[in-house]
Amino acid sequence: MAPIDNAANPIAASFARWKAGFVEKAVAKGFDRGFVEAQLAGVEPSSAILNQDTRQPEFSKPIGDYVRTAASPVRAAEGIRRKNAEPHMAAIEQKYGVPAEIVVAIWADESGFGKVQGNHDVIQAFATLAFEGRRRDWAEAQLLAAFTMIRDRGVPREKLKGSWAGAMGQTQFIPEAYLRLGQDGDGDGKVDIWSSDADALASAANHLAQEGWRRGESWAVEVIPPPGFDYSVSESEKHPPAWWQAKGIRRADGRSWSAADQVSEAVLLVPAGANGPAFLAFPNHFVIRRYNNSIAYALSIGLLADEMRGEPPLARAWPQETPLSRGQRTDAQTALLSLGYPVGKPDGLIGAGSRDAVRQWQKKNGLTADGYLTPALIEKLKAEAAAMKPAAPAQAPVKQPSGR
Ligand code: CA
């Protein structure tokens, strides 16, 4: 290797220090020093990855736009075609208990049915993320898992390609997930989530099964809440369908609940507010979120699967939504915080805690408590926070967010 000019290239020097320390850690974990050095030979930190890891989009895509794109009829048609073309599909569905349409929908979303897998060297990706340091332990654990894939599982070094975040193949598994969840769906003795559709589908199904997928239960069902419904129970209360029915909530499709769903429990979701579609989300919705913890993601997977199965489209369409900038979202959180709602450090990422605070604030102000932020609502929050600024900071304690 060419000598590094430390003075001229401080990043290279600092990366070399990280690398030397990490090699010792890998050797202490039982890896051969020559093997480790060979895997890291010529690996340099990727500036593209460093920049992407800290970048957050300025505008959040409204959930309706996201779901419409991800669960489009064109994609459903392609999903049906790919499902029917896969000879191992029925066996995979039987073995793991996850409907084929759900597994195919994940395949569609993660990699466009295998077409978009990412072409980054994952060793370089995790070395960069480990060197960068914010998630060093996690990234170093992925590097060790990648070494195990090469040393013990017969995965060629050049196969280790994936996204800038190190998610690999058609299922977008990080190395630890590959080791823990990867499956040989076509029975050739290898787990090839890059080139084998059956291996990718079996691995995705196994992931959901291991996270507790409940055979025979729905993922969610669209419902229609009655006029004047108190939405403050959404995203927190968990009850069997009959409890929700007693509150006036009915299925959008008019059918009756399956035997499996009747004895399960569901959470009400109104992801685009009270004017948008409402869902009773069963435990399988939250299993999908173990793949990617986002309501929009889980709805996209579930609705694409429904469309593939020929279910009717949503009874209540996604409303026209205004994208919120990061500044607007952060302002909302800052206002909620100064009004005494525990939303954590304002970061512009609206999660369950922020939505719960919005619901509480809406309820206190006699508004429909659907937890949905709009530009008008943010202005009201800011005005109220500004009006109370001179007052003492002490506020009555409020209910903790559910933290789901
Ligand atoms: Ca295989």
What does this structure look like?
- This protein is 48% helix and 5% strand.
- By secondary structure, it is mainly alpha-helical.
- Among the domains are: 89 residues, Lysozyme; 63 residues.
- A 5-stranded antiparallel β-sheet has the order 4-6-7-3-5. It has a two-stranded antiparallel ribbon with strand order 1-2.
- The protein binds calcium ion.
- The site of calcium ion (CA) has 7 residues, from loops.
Could you list some keywords that capture this structure?
Lysozyme; 48% helix; 7 strands; mainly alpha; binds calcium ion; 5-stranded antiparallel β-sheet; globular; 404 residues; two-stranded antiparallel ribbon
From N to C, what is the helix and strand string? HHHHHHHEHHEHHEEHEHEEHHHHH
CATH topology of the domain at 220-308: Lysozyme
CATH architectural label of the domain at 220-308: Orthogonal Bundle
- Which CATH C-level class of the domain at 220-308 is it? Mainly Alpha
Shape: globular
Number of helices: 18
Q: How confident is the prediction overall: mean pLDDT?
A: 93
Q: Percent of residues in beta strands? A: 5-15%
Helix residue percentage = 40-55%
Low-confidence stretches: none
Q: How many runs of DSSP E, i.e. beta strands?
A: 7
Main-sheet strand order equals 4-6-7-3-5
The main pleated sheet reads as: 5 strands, antiparallel
Ligands and ions found: calcium ion
Radius of gyration: 24 Å
Structural class per helix/strand content? mainly alpha
